[in-house]
Every structure is written in C-alpha cells, then in structure tokens.
Amino acid sequence: MLDKNQIAQRIAQELQNKWYVNLGIGIPTLVANYIPKGIDVEFQSENGLLGMGPFPIEGTEDADMINAGKQTVTILDGGSLFDSAMSFAMIRGQHVQLTVLGAMEVAQNGDIANWKIPGRMVKGMGGAMDLVASAENIIVAMMHTNKRGESKILKECSLPLTGVGCVKKIVTNLAVLDVRDNSFYLLERAPGVSVEEIQQATEGNLIVEGEIPEMKL
Predict the structure, then answer these.
(1) Per annotation, catalytic residue among 14, 46, 105, 203
(2) Catalytic (active site) residue 211
C-alpha cells in the first residue's frame, strides 16, 4: 500500500498544464513536491498565496512564508501574496481548476466529511466550506481505513458534512476511485494490493469492471 508521499505523487499525475490548483491541509500539501515534467501549474493557498512551491530545504525556512496548514513553504518566481478576501474571490469565482482535499470520510454519492469529529474541539470549518461549494473538480487524498481498520469509504458519512455530492475522485493508500452514479468505481490498485483487499476495506458500493491495473508512480 502507498504512504502519504506516494498518494500525493499519484495525485500529481492528475495535474494539467496551466491549471490553478488549490491544495488543502495534510496530504494534499505534498502534491507540490511531485509536479510532472513539462507541466506548468500555479498552486494556490487559501491564506493568500499564488505560486506556491515545494517545501523548503531544512535550514532555509522563512517563518512568515506559510500555507493554509501553517507549514513553511516556498514561493516560485512570479508568485504573489494577497489578503484572504482576494483568495476567496478566486475560489468562489471558480478560477481554480482543481482542488485537492484531505478527508475523514467520503460517501458513495460524493459527500465529504473533513472538518469535525464530534466531541473534539475545533476552531471551525475554515475555508473547506467555500472550496467544496465552489470547486467543480475535487480530488480527495486519504487513507482507505481508520486506525481501527474500519472503512472510511462509505455508503453514507457518519461525521458532520463539509460538502454534499462534490467529490469526483479519491486516491487512497489502496486505490484510485472514481465517484459517480452513487458508487465508487475502482480505477487502479496500489502495487501489491489485490482487488479483494480493496473490496474488504470498502463499505460503500464498489464497482469493479474488468482487469484493474496497478498504479504507476
């Protein structure tokens, strides 16, 4: 199965030239480290950064240059900094071609829960609400099961929802899944992972059509 960096590496293969891409907190931030050769994209961070580069080399960090998850990042030549009002005008105005988010649960109809676990203190939903409401192309980066081995790819989400019917594709440590027709369609499996293992780890309706190839990283 894949580790977090490999999930990000696989998602990076979805990038298309000249796209503006928003990277959410967690695994999605790693995507900036794996831009395919020949692809020119602009990464947007909701705290007001366009032209975000990979994580800095240790010892070269600038404490004032951070992403939405408060991690130190770099800025590429031609990048720009601006306020949150401008950032969310980009997001709400649908000027971002791809949004990559982490999730705690995804349902087979495309619902996503990624902001709150009941009983735990949180500051609020943050920008995730705007991202899922405005984006037309959302890919989720997540682990297929929780620490207890229970599926996070579900018929219905049990946690408070962030967005309804918005997720298009999921990349987990086990598989790549399309979300459509109220089902999860298995597109690829992680190296060394069988279709049967993915079926056992998926609570939602999983459609398997033909021979399922292994991911190429």
Answers:
(1) 46
(2) no
pTM to 2 decimals? 0.93
Task: Write out pLDDT tens, residues 32-91.
Answer: 889 999 999 999 998 999 999 888 999 999 999 998 888 999 999 999 999 989 999 999
Q: Sorting pLDDT into bands at 50, 70 and 90, what band is 122? A: low
Beta carbons within 8 Å of 31's beta carbon, 6+ residues apart:
8, 11, 12, 15, 21, 23, 43, 100, 141
Task: Give the span between the Cα atoms of 110 and 115, in whole angstroms.
Answer: 16
Contacts of 30 (CB under 8 A, 6+ apart): 4, 5, 7, 8
Which CATH code, of 1.10.10.10, 3.40.50.800, 3.40.1080.10, 3.40.50.300, is assigned to 4-28+83-207? Answer: 3.40.1080.10
CA 189 to chain centroid, in Å, comes to: 18
